[in-house]
Design a protein that fits this description.
Glucose Oxidase, domain 1; golgi apparatus (chains A, B); hydrolase (chains A, B); 2 domains; homodimer
Chain lengths: 477, 477
Amino acid sequence: MKKLLLLFLSSILLISCNQKQEKPIDNNQFSAEEKIDSTKIKTLFNTALTEGKSYEWLRVLTQNIGGRLSGSPEAEKAVIWGEKLMNEVGLDSVWLQPVMVPHWVRGEKEVANYAINGVQKNVPICALGFSIATSKEGVLAEVIEVKSLEEATALGDKMKDKIIFFNRPFDNTLIKTFEAYGGCVDQRVKGASVCGNFGAKGVIVRSMTNAVDDYPHTGTMSYGDLPKEKHIPTAAISSRAANILSDDLKANPNLKFYFKQSCETLPDAPSFNVVGEIKGSETPENVFVVGGHLDSWDLAEGAHDDGTGIVQSLEVAYLFKKNNIKPKNTLRVVFFMNEENGTKGAKKYAELAKLNKENHIGALESDGGGHTPRGFSIDANTVNTKLLQSWKKLLSPYGLHDLDKGGSGADISPLKAENVTLVGYRPDSQRYFDYHHTSTDTFDKVNKRELELGSASMASIIYLMDKYLYNNTPVKP
Amino acid sequence: MKKLLLLFLSSILLISCNQKQEKPIDNNQFSAEEKIDSTKIKTLFNTALTEGKSYEWLRVLTQNIGGRLSGSPEAEKAVIWGEKLMNEVGLDSVWLQPVMVPHWVRGEKEVANYAINGVQKNVPICALGFSIATSKEGVLAEVIEVKSLEEATALGDKMKDKIIFFNRPFDNTLIKTFEAYGGCVDQRVKGASVCGNFGAKGVIVRSMTNAVDDYPHTGTMSYGDLPKEKHIPTAAISSRAANILSDDLKANPNLKFYFKQSCETLPDAPSFNVVGEIKGSETPENVFVVGGHLDSWDLAEGAHDDGTGIVQSLEVAYLFKKNNIKPKNTLRVVFFMNEENGTKGAKKYAELAKLNKENHIGALESDGGGHTPRGFSIDANTVNTKLLQSWKKLLSPYGLHDLDKGGSGADISPLKAENVTLVGYRPDSQRYFDYHHTSTDTFDKVNKRELELGSASMASIIYLMDKYLYNNTPVKP
C-alpha cells in the first residue's frame, strides 16, 4: 500500500509536470537592444497581470453606466466618467472634443410573431439602428425569403407589399469570424434601401452571428439615397428564429409575418471624444494614438464592443506611467464617440488633427473584443510593416503570432496616410459574434486575464512603435 | 443629406472591410504533396465547423450524465454512453477494458466557518479527493498560515493541534497558466502528508486558480507513506476566502477555524476504459491513440475537464469517416477512466498494450480544456519532433502556432518509448483554471466553435502523423 501511494503520488506530480509548457524567454536569441525590449515587455505584462486596473474600470463602465448609444444620457455619463478617469490615471492633459452625433432611439420593445395553423410563434426581434418605426399598428404581410441583395433586386415589383426576409447565414468555415461578418453584413446595411425602392413593406434580417441562438443582434443600416417616402422599417431576428421561419415558409408560403417597432431618429445631439495624453519626452510634436470607442449599442452593456477597447487603451497609458516609461513621442489616448452609427467622433478627431497640423506617426485601435490576444493587423507602408513584423520574436512568447498586413479599425482609419502606421489589435474572434450588438454583451463575458493580456499586448507594441518609429524614420532594432 | 448618407454607408462598409483579416491559404508556398495535405486539412475543418457532432455529444455527457467521479453511478453511465456512441459513429470495433478504480465519495456538503468578534463568517470549502472525513463534530482549531511545504515542515511540532493553511497563490505573471498550477499544486497534493506527520489537526489549501472568486476547487491529494493514524482531513477553500482569512489572521492570530466533512474512500470499484478503433488500411498492426478522460470531479459536469477531450477525440474518428479518410495505421479512440484520482485506466491501457505486443506509433491527448486552439506540445525523439514542427505552415492558418517540445498528458504518458510520438493538444489556457475542478465547469462555459476547431486541429495532426510517421519511419513530407 505504501508503495502504491508513492507510485500514485508520483503520477499526480506527473500530471502537473506533463502540463508544463512554458519555457523561460530565451534571451540568448536576442541582441543587446532586443534584450532591453524583451525585459521591458515582460515588465508591462507583469504589471498588467498583477496590478491591472482595466477589469475594475470595465465593471464600472458596463454595470454602472451600461449601454451608451450616441446621444443617450448613458453616453454622456460615459464621457464624464472617461474624462475623470483619465485625470485619475494622471495623464498630462485631458480634454473633450465636441462633436455632433446622430441620435437614434429604439423606443418601446419590439414585437414580432406569426401564426401557423392558428398557433402563434413569437419571434425575438430588434430594430436596426436608423430604421424608421412601423405604424402604431405594426406591419403585417406575406414574406419572401432571399439570400442576397442581388436575389432581392431580381424580385423587382414582386416585393410590393411584402416583407423581405434576408437569410444568408455566416460562412462558419471561415476561421476568422470577421470574414464571415464581412460576407453577410450587406444584408443588414443595405437590405431596406434595396427593397424600399420596390415598395416592400418591411425588411427582416437574420442576425449577424456564427451561433444559432435566440438573441437578435442590432447594428446600423442605411437608406442610402432612397427618398424618404420609400423608407421602410427594418429589423433583425434571432438566428434560430430565422431557421424556423425559413422552415415554416417552405410548408406555409403564404404565412403572414407581423412586427411592430417605434424607433426614431431625433435631431443630432452634442457629444464628445474624450482625449488625454502623456507629453513626449523628446519629440512631443509627434503623436501616437491608442483608442477604442466609448459609445455602444443599447441592448446590453457594451462590454466586448467596445468597453474592453476603452479600458485597454487607457491601461496602456497606466502601464507606461506605472513603470515610469516616458514615451519619446506624445502618447494620446482617445475614447472615440459614435463608432457604432456614424463614426462622427473619428472624423472629428482626424479633422482637428489636420486643422491643428498635428504630426501623427501611428495609431492603434482595439475594437475586436476583449478575448485572448492573437496579434495585430498592420496597415502601413512596406518599410514600417516589415519593421513591425520583425518584432515577432519579442511578441510571440505572449501568444501574439498574427502580424499580417490588413485593416486597422474604423476610428483610426481617417488618419491613414503614407507615413502613418495604423494597427488593429486582434484578439481571438471565435466567441465575438456570440455577443456582438446583442443583449449578451455583458461584463461577465469578459475574462480578467484575457483583458489584461490585451492591455499589455497593446502597451508592448506601442512601446516598440514609440521607440523605433521615432520621428517617422524607421530605425532598425 | 444624400451625400452624407452615401458617405455614411461607405464608412459602414469600411468597418467590415477594415476588420477583414483572413487571407486565402496561399497554396503557392506549398509543395505538391503539401497542397494535398492543406486541402485535406481544410476539409477536416470545414466538416467540423458545419457538421460537427461534438457539441451535442458534450451536452448529453455533461447535462444528462453530469459529474462522473471514478466508481460513481454516473461514471458507469458514461461508460455505457461512450460505448454506444462509438458504435453509432461506426468504428470498426468497440470494446471495454475492465479496470479496478479507486472509489472516493464526498458525502454530505462540507461546512466551514470562523467567528470574528462574535460574527460568523462562512467559508466556501470542499474536501480534497482521498481526504479522510473529520469527526462528526468537525475540527475546530487555531490556524497557522504558510506559503510552502518547506515553511510548514520548518514549523515542526508547532503544528500540533493546529489547522495548517496553505496560501501560496498562483503566479499570475506566468502566461501559460498550467505553469502557475504546476508551481502551486504541491500544497494540495502533499500538504496533509507533511502536516499530519507533526500532529496537525487538519489542512486547508487555497484553491488552485488564477481568479479571485468564491468557488472552492477540489482535486486529488495523497497521504504518501504516512501511517494511517496520522492521516488528517484536508480541504480547499475559495481564493477569496483565503485572502479574507489571511487578512483576518493578521488582526486575530488566535481565531479558531471550523470545518466538517464526511468523505471516505470505499473499496476499489470495477470500471472500464472505453476503446474503439478504425482498422488501418495498410499496416493495421501499428496503432495511433487519440483520447481524453471519461471520469471527472463530482462538483460540476466535467465540461472542460475533460468532457471536451472525450468528444473531440471521438470527433477525430467521425471526421475521418465522414470524409472517407482511411488511416494507414489503426486509429484508436480511448476514453480513459480515472485520470483524476489514480490514472488506473491509463496504466491498464499501457499494460494491456504491452501484454498484447501492440505496436503504438503515437498518441494524442486532449486534457487542457475546450478553448480556442493554440497548438500542440510534442514529446518525441528529435527526428519526429522536427518532423511535426515542419508542419507549422500547414497548421498555422488555423491558429496552431505552438509546436514546442514538452509533456503530452497523464493518460498517454505510460505509452512513452523512444519511437512513440506523444502529443498533447494545447488550447488557450487563460480561462481554464476558472473552471478546473470546481462547480462552474459546466456545458455553458464551452463555445461550440472553439470545441469544433479543437476537434479539427486534432484530426489534422493525426492525419499528418498517420501519413508521415507511417510504420514509425519518418518520411519527409
